[in-house]
Specification:
With 107 residues, the protein is α/β, with parallel strands linked by helices. The chain contains two helices and nine strands; from the N terminus they run βαββββαββββ. The chain has helices at residues 7-20, 66-72; strands at 4-5, 25-33, 37-45, 53-57, 60-64, 76-82, 85-91, 97-98, 105-106.
Length: 107
């Protein structure tokens, strides 16, 4: 099952990669935290590790370590604006519950 990125999010990532001047893509992951157990981690990736899973969609490489992939498979990464706020949104079909503040989730 792949991990995808919307066209809007891909444009945003490519713009920042170009401004940054380096990077091979976007690293997605999860970490243990929050009241529901897991939180998303997103950062620019400068290299791909030998055990990483790599998905290329809309011109962006999405890089995920094997541990995080179990929680992210089938996820679509989007980018949007709501009022004055903007940011990435994970449309993750594996999520069973989210905390009230929206910062963490569980599967």
């Amino acid at each position: 099952m792949s991990i995808t990125i919307t066209n809007t999010a891909a444009k945003h990532v490519n713009q920042h990669l170009s401004t940054r001047g380096k990077g091979v893509g976007l690293r997605l992951g999860v970490k243990t935290t929050g009241c529901s157990g897991l939180a998303y981690v997103i950062e620019f990736a400068d290299k791909i590790e030998s055990d990483d899973k790599v998905f290329e969609h809309n011109g962006v490489k999405l890089i995920v370590n094997p541990k995080s992939y179990a929680y992210l498979k089938g996820t679509e990464l989007d980018f949007g604006r709501e009022g004055l706020n903007e940011g990435f949104k994970f449309n993750n079909p594996n999520v069973k519950d989210k905390c009230g503040c929206g910062e963490s989730f569980n599967v």
